[in-house]
Design brief:
Length: about 250
């Protein structure tokens, strides 16, 4: 594929995203939904087995962009959280509701998948883990959709929806990767052991690195320090994934 075609496609996506933002402001339809529908439409139009086989390099590029986008989603969600003493009750309530809603929706949708496609045979690829992996993305209340949609709500309801959707993003991504990394493990004891070690090591490393980063960026005075911070976060994410830690 020509490099100019890729540049044209990237430019058109940015232009369409800008147009969708204008339409979203007029109609209150989240621009993210329009972009998703556009992507589905493009795939239906241009996809074929031949193009899929020929575009392995393109798929690798999309995987890289997907990982960077995932970091942006979690980072943006975390930046929306303001930890204050008077917000503790609101934060706890929104966290519990986001967790319960995610679990209930995931298991409900997974049950539908199991009812429709699981045949009970050992050769079947449809099981609870697989069904949950497909159900979790459908159960997340994405902040990219919720936050632009609640701009006209009163302050208290708006804050609650922002916190809930933010926690839903983070918990949903963590839940999905938990299922993905343990889908072939048969022993519940082994899963519990692996998850405990993973979370413990991740939290310990995160606390140490966060403390060092705060000290470092407090002393930096350069204007481009935010780009440096994002580069460090991407580096830590990639290293963590290589060692099978919960990088997000």
């Amino acid at each position: 594929m020509s490099s100019y075609v890729i540049i044209i496609a990237a430019a058109l996506i940015i232009i369409l995203s800008f147009i969708f933002n204008i339409v979203s402001n007029k109609t209150n339809i989240p621009s993210v939904l329009m972009l998703i529908l556009l992507g589905v439409f493009i795939q239906l139009v241009v996809w074929s087995p031949d193009t899929q086989a020929k575009n392995s390099q393109l798929m690798m590029g999309l995987e890289i962009l997907g990982n960077v986008g995932l970091i942006f989603i979690v980072l943006e969600a975390a930046l929306d959280l303001k930890l204050k003493k008077d917000k503790i009750g609101l934060i706890a309530k929104s966290f519990i509701i986001a967790l319960l809603a995610l679990l209930f929706s995931s298991f409900a949708i997974a049950s539908v998948f199991m009812f429709l496609w699981a045949d009970g045979s050992p050769e079947s690829n449809v099981n609870w883990i697989t069904s949950l992996m497909y159900a979790v993305p459908l159960s997340i209340m994405s902040s990219a959709i919720i936050i632009p949609s609640v701009s006209k709500l009163v302050k208290n309801k708006k804050e609650f929806m922002i916190y809930e959707s933010t926690f839903s993003d983070i918990l949903g991504i963590m839940f999905f990767y938990f299922l993905k990394n343990n889908r072939y493990v048969e022993s519940a004891e082994q899963v519990f052991k692996d998850v405990s070690i993973n979370i413990g090591a991740t939290v310990l490393i995160a606390l140490v690195i966060s403390y060092l980063l705060v000290i470092l960026f407090q002393k930096l005075q350069m204007q481009a320090k935010y780009f440096l911070m994002f580069s460090v976060l991407v580096l830590l994410y990639a290293i963590g994934k290589m060692f099978h830690l919960s990088s997000l």
